[in-house]
Amino acid sequence: MGSRMSLDVWTTGPKRMKFKSSLVLMLVGCSCVFSAGTANAEEQTGAALLRQYCMDCHDESIAEGEFVLELDHLDWSRSSIRHEMERVHQFVSKGIMPPSDADVPTRAEKRTILAWLDGQLRDSSPIGGMTLRRLSSREYANSVRSVFGLSSFELPVGFPPDNVLDGFDNQSNTLVMAASHLEAFAETAAGIADQMFPPPTKPIQPRSYQVPAKDLVVSYSSAMLVDGAMRLASSGANIRRHATWPSKFEAPASGVYEVSVVARSLVPDGLDVPVPILRMESSGTSAKATSSFAETPVPSGETTTATFVLGIDRGGTVQFRYPNGPFDYDDKEGFQETMRTMLAADPRLALAWKQVGDPPRGGSGWDRLKLAMAGFEDDFVPLPDSERDQIADQIAKDSVSSGETLVYKYFEQGPYVAIESVTIRGPVSTYADKSQLRSRSERERFVGRSADWTDADHVRSFLLGFMKKLYRRPVIDAEVDAYCQLVQREAKASGAVDRGLHLAVRTALISPSFLYREVGSGTLDEFELASRLSFFLTSGPPDAQLTRLAEARELSSEETLREQVQRLLQSEDVRFVKDFANAWLGLDTVDRLMPDTQLIKRFTADHRNGMKNEVYETLKFAIGANRPVKDLIAPDFVFTNGVVGREIYEIDFDAFENKKDRKPSNKDVRRYPVPADGWRGGLLTMPAVMMATANGVDTQPVLRGVWVLGNILGSPPPEPPKAVPALTPDTAGASTPRELLARHMAESSCAACHRDIDPIGFVLESFDAVGRWRDKYPKAAKAKKAIAVETNGQLPDGTPLSDVTDLKKHLASQPEPVARCLAEKLMTYATGRKPNYAERQMLAEEVGTLKDDGYPIRDLVEAIVLSELFQVK
Amino acid sequence: MMNLIHDGRRTLLKSAGVTLALPMLPSLGSETASAPVPDAGDSKAKRLVCVGSNLGLYRKALYPERSGRGYELTPLMKPLETHRADLTLFSGFDHRASNGHKNWDNYLCGKQIGSVSLDQLVAAKVGGGTRLESMQLCAGDIPQQRMVFSKQGVPLPMINRPSVVYGKLFASADDRARQGYLLRSGQSALDVVQEDARALERRLGNEDQRKLQEYFSSLRELETRMSRQLSHLADGVEEVDYQLPAYDPMAPTLMLECEQIMFDLMALALQTDSTRVATLFIAGLGQVFTLDGETMRAGYHALSHHGNDPDLIRDLVRVETEHMRCLARFLSQLKERTDEVGQPLLDSTVVMFGTGMGDASRHSNRDLPTLIAGGGLSHGQHIAADPTDDGGPQLGNVFVSLLQHFGVETDGFSDVSGRVDHWA
Fold first, then answer.
1. What distances in angstroms separate CA A212 from CA A14, A248, A423, B392, one per listed residue?
2. From A450, A714, A740, A866, which residue has the greatest number of CB atoms within 10 Å?
3. CB-CB under 8 Å, B251 with A15
């Protein structure tokens, strides 16, 4: 029998792997049609049938589609062969191959082929088989935070990002180690060592910086240089738009600086505004004793000189603003009033704006308005009041753009404050800023407050403690010895033990014992189990409790594992749900896309966060309350915030009875009830998912259908043939996406997969590219009317779908594929590799035991951890 | 097509019974016993500089009407007038990639973002002997865009502080001492972790051992890089006559100043043979520039979204003219300075100025304007292609020509194959 043969190959093979005995497989795994006694005949028939139906096109001489079916010397022990044969299984079972215009097997023959392939695959697939797994950069950063207690550690800008496979950044096969990685690890390590054992620094000498007005920064329309002075006219809060600062000065050290400024101002005669104030403020100071800002009145017509001292953190600067200026286009509501008043006082401007149309942003827009105004005769006819107000309101609507233009009026006419020059002297004295203070306390916690490094035992125990944490396992004497020697040698050569310790930290941080985890093959030992569990549920190394359990050899008992899963899932830190959901559902796309402004006018960080937080909070809630998996599909709640709730879910918050519900926050998402049989709620229709599966502008039913099959139902269709062009929806013409896709159904080789894909894609067409419900596609420019969204269809099993609610109902009533898919994704994320054919069957059985309870989510996570799959390398 | 021409020439020579050492023609290769086999050392081009402009160049002010040698001078070509014989302007070339800011990244890596970029392919060929195999610079804020990808698909970080670049090239005595210390002690760190890795290796099966080879070879490469840096440190640092400003031009309004300094530093790096491959990203956001005493009437990014407004375009072209001036000054520097055999640096340095953005006003990545100068290539023309012609030449074909010119044996780049006709 095939399995026995392959077993021989395997046991003599390079890597000792665990096998499920074929006997167990027969009893538990296989409801297949054959028994052990007839296996040989089955093999004969299965292989013979494949030969009969496939070799006309897939023998070596023809190799249709560049695929050769090699049946004579099938070495099932090779993973590439198994992978290939799995595809054969998929193609035959879906009826993609043989093509319908060729000889096709009868249903009984097809069953025989599939049973043979299934048996072979189950028998020959090992349980386990992870290749050497490097820490992902995310895991690396979390490890540094945890081991060194550097809570705010971030990877340096430009740290090489990891390759991603099916959305997962932690897959052992794709996490390569290139020289650029090791170099980045080494450089980062030097930075960490610098924090723990800082090299001596030279004190910064005070000096004086002369800043002429021309060396002050102008960004957007924040300021304007006229006659050698820098004029400030607008008064909003946004620094980049309403402030100026020296372009050639950065505080060389955190310290106190003396800032002198020479300034004038202009308030046009007769204008009733308060005496202009010039405000100078530090871009950031953590010195409590020194002020962070100062203000001085600058009366119109005189030259004012003022000197103040400010605390400025290293790298910072001093910003100048005109805080009581009357022109503030950041204040949207006030701006409308400002505009009405301005145009009432200046009817020429109103007329000019009308004539020019919306002028270009910035100074050239103002030039154009001036030109128009210059053309008016003295006896020009002003606009009627109502029209003038209309124009004012229109200007106020796009406040940023018109503000950037109209501020030039103030630059020219006032009121403005003009800075003639600035002098900065310092640092007069220095202080430890927040980050220095934090570094100091982090250092003391890691190194000890008064460590005696002349004591060799102390050095040794320090190294031992830190290496154990870093390597996530006990450290043997020889390893510590090597590091002790390294420290001593360096200390001797340089005359400073600090330098030796600096080197030891740098070295351990690029050691393979740190950079690779759960190495080798076979069952995980207690420490590796702690590590895998911890990286799975916290994205970081084991904490003290897990380490203690591993040391006591107590972690691997089922009871303890269950307890630990619950404990880790309860922690406030939701790294697991975030990291897992980001990978599983591709949520980083939500951050990358800027949706079309036709779809949504102002798409803000609150929208993005609201969308993503809904996913995280839903998962967190479902885990916490151990909800059945159907609650991920058709729940009676959504989590949302104000902007997403109003603009995308179109929830009428005013209709809620509870006062708190009526006032949703735009920052935090909260749970709101929705009908379980409606379109809102559930992973399939969440705005984050709908957005991530579109491109910010339009939607493609095939992409979403494929996405759902692969990520929610766990049966990704095979790659389409290369010759097929992508479908670009052309809603402008007569053909709807649906009509275009009808071609798939006509072509049987396409239909094999599109039967599965299209009906799902169609019901999701009800959601636009930001996840808002729609009945019609946006009307194309030339089209007479908008095309209606058609959602009706039928699943391959005959279930009719009128819209997405039918699909949700169907999946909620038969949640098994969803539960299995989630389990596979969790396992892939946890073990760093995709489970193979036999492993997926095994996992399905384990998941199956939760069927009666409706596959509760937390139980599912526990089942993952308790699975044999989780516990082998 | 060029192959045919070369073959024809060879045939002609043979039939005349002459055995000549032909000048280096990459496509000839080793098939001719009589011709010298070109290797890396023979290639005329030894250095490469690629500059990428975030917001592109306004093509209507750059592209001449006429193609070929007799093209008329356009506003953006004006600053480059003195270098006309030493450069080629390509119009209508691109990678047939998608549109949008994100796809700027296609510039040096072709159709697939993350494929190894042109400069890194060249660095692998020519960069080995120098202290830094390649360097990546940026004028302005570090962008989201990525310009350089290693052969593993890793985007390489850019440096945007001139003082840091300068420090890397010509460190102060204090910095050198610290650097030397870190490198020397770092070498003993490598020894220790190599032992760690050997111990680990013994516990692994074959497949994992293979994967661990990645670690060992990274370790070796890192070691090589470190000892290269050490030996350069030991050589002492070349005295260069260059004064950095006392401040780092990091403020947004100083971006053009930063750009100029970065160009200067690249010239110094090439002159001192600290590196042979450098890239420079030119950023650009809301900053309002003051040029020749006159402040632009809107921020650079707002100008680039000109929507065909003539006033905005006028200012945009003024800013872009500054890029062209920087480039012209850089080319002049490379002509004045000489390489190890006393030839002008430009003769052996290919300088490319291009972008991943065809039309910033519409975020279109069709038709990426590209200028190529120096390197002993044949110049003086405007080569125009039709970006809507599916079978037409693409930027990838230009890159193939360049790669072959550097002695890289390849006939393809990204998803295109073959050199561009009638050039190089």
1. 73, 10, 8, 54
2. A714
3. no
> Using alpha carbons only, how large is chain A's radius of gyration in Å?
34
- Contacts of A562-569 spanning 24+ positions with Cβ under 8 A: A562/A862, A562/A866, A564/A533, A565/A533, A565/A537, A565/A858, A565/A861, A565/A862, A565/A865, A566/A858, A566/A862, A568/A533, A568/A534, A568/A537, A568/A538, A569/A537, A569/A623, A569/A624, A569/A858, A569/A861
Q: Of chain A residues 189-228, which have a CB less than 8 A from chain B?
A: 190, 199, 214, 217-222, 224-225
Quote the minimal CA–CA distance from B377 to chain A in Å.
Answer: 32
8 Å CB contact between A268 and A413: yes
pLDDT tops 90 at residue A75 = no
B201 token code pair? 């290796």
Cβ pair A519:B204 closer than 8 A: yes
Question: Would you call A255 helix, strand, or coil by DSSP?
Answer: strand
Q: In what order do the strands lie in the sheet with B277-282?
A: B135-139, B277-282, B47-53, B349-354, B370-374, B87-91, B382-384
**Six-digit token string for A793:** 């269809």
Task: Specify the pTM.
Answer: 0.71
Q: Which of residues 161-200 of B touch A (CB under 8 A)?
A: 178, 181-182, 185-186, 188-189, 192-193, 195-197, 200
User: Among all chains, which residue has been given the structure tokens 């918050």?
Assistant: A653
Report the 10 Å Cβ neighbour count for A408.
Answer: 21
Q: Determine, for residues A179 and B217 on separate chains, whether the beta-carbon distance falls below 8 Å.
A: yes
Q: Which residues contact A181 (CB under 8 A, 6 or more apart)?
A: A160, B154, B218
Q: Pick the range with the lowest mean pLDDT from A125-129, A194-198, B205-209, B233-237.
A: B233-237
Residue type (1 letter), A221: S
Q: Does B152 contact A178 at a Cβ distance shorter than 8 Å?
A: yes
- The amino acid at A519: V
Q: How many CB atoms lie within 10 A of CB B243?
A: 6
What pLDDT score does A863 carry? 97
Q: What is the pLDDT of residues A842-869, one digit of tens each?
A: 999 999 999 999 999 999 999 999 999 9
Q: Is B128 touching A (CB cutoff 8 A)? A: no
A832: left (phi over 0), alpha (psi -120 to 50) or beta: left
CB under 8 A, 24+ apart: contacts of B261-264: B261/B162, B262/B137, B262/B138, B262/B139, B262/B162, B262/B165, B263/B326, B263/B327, B263/B329, B263/B330, B263/B333, B264/B330, B264/B333
CB distance from A248 to chain B under 8 Å?
yes
Contacts of B25 (CB under 8 A, 6+ apart): B6, B38
B214 vs A177, A479, A511: nearest CB: A177
In this structure, the dihedral spanned by the alpha carbons of residues A630, A633, A637 and A641, taken in order and rounded to 10 degrees, is 140
Please compute the mean of the pLDDT values over residues A107-130 and round it to a whole number. Answer: 90
- Determine the residue of chain A that is closest to B298 in CA distance: A362
Mutate to test the interface with B, among A11, A361, A480, A498 (most CBs of B within 10 A): A361
Interface membership of B298 toward A (CB under 8 Å)? yes
- Contact status of B215 with chain A (Cβ, < 8 Å): yes
From chain A, the residues in CB contact with B206 under 8 A are 14-15
